[in-house]
């Protein structure tokens, strides 16, 4: 019993330090090593237990799937640094901006396109904010509506493939599913893959884009003064140039996602193709330079290093937590929840939603899912549906005040005339939309399962 109390104390200590802003990677690894040493000193763990840590780290870092993460990040950064994303936004704005609410629809549509080509929330929010926010405010768009549209559309990269969240989540779910099978005395079979998650996320992603557009239509109908038509000076682009601006990125998206979904290439191979394709696209548009390449390489290294350091630390944390019988404590608690599998799933969804107020998706994926996932997957929950539900819920972690990362990115580029309270109020309807989407996917699992079943 004492060792289980030690696991609870370790979990509580970790989240205490995280909530007070201590670095995530060092908090996870440091707390885990500290409590493992305490447990070893009191005889609860063998001294040989710590020898498992290097092998776990080596197993994580030799995972070929994770190579796709820096490649997709590099692809997105090339498109952003070479101004291709900016050009795409301006062109679509020219097509729709003169309609009432047209600039709002532009933000949503381009947000979805950038999500499918970059998957980098910060870059999307900042790009759309810098280019569309001044125009929105100039022509009388409501501050809260403009803030909400830009922040919410920028987070679509969390769910629309090729999403970094889905790649990391698929790796964690593969381990969780295998453990759940072993805990039931079964030989692991039919593991969930990144391709399954990519296919399963397409319809939920389209659902979110549709719900965002419906909200914009509701605003147009009930509060037309919130989103007036604007007059955009038409660019002198020829039809051929306009089509190339819009369709070349779309072609790149189709090739990258299509090769993954059709089984032609693995996610890692498709990511390398996408990275090369993004550079070729920027060369075609005469926007590629050594400066662009240098910025993209350095930022890719910085972002990837952060992700992998957290991944290694979370691996150590999960190992020690399981060694301290923390999973047995959680299993006992979850089995006592009313409602069986549905009650356990509801508990996890609520837990992830509220953790999103304070932690980002990487911390949640690497600390919560590996520990609770195997417990829930023993309850005959479909692992693909389970993963999509988590992914959609994780998207709210970028939107929920007070620590939603999209809100921080937007606050950094928003003028002082937009108060922080305006931003919070602006994203509130989109948080509700996220919850509605979750309920729809929970009620109709086919939204996540239909396309993978048809394809595979």
What report would you give on this structure?
75% of the residues lie in helices and 0% in strands. The longest helix is centred in the C-terminal third of the chain and has 34 residues, at 290-323. The protein is built from 21 helices and no strands. The mean pLDDT is 83. The protein is globular. Helix 3 packs antiparallel against helix 13 and helix 6 packs parallel to helix 8 (143-154). By secondary structure, the protein is mostly helical. It starts with a helix and ends with a helix. The protein has a domain at 65-288 and 400-455. It has helices at residues 2-19, 24-41, 52-61, 68-81, 84-96, 102-117, 121-138, 143-154, 164-183, 194-222, 239-261, 267-284, 290-323, 326-335, 340-355, 361-367, 369-377, 383-395, 405-413, 420-443, 446-455.
Chain-wise SSE layout:
Elements: H1 2-19, H2 24-41, H3 52-61, H4 68-81, H5 84-96, H6 102-117, H7 121-138, H8 143-154, H9 164-183, H10 194-222, H11 239-261, H12 267-284, H13 290-323, H14 326-335, H15 340-355, H16 361-367, H17 369-377, H18 383-395, H19 405-413, H20 420-443, H21 446-455
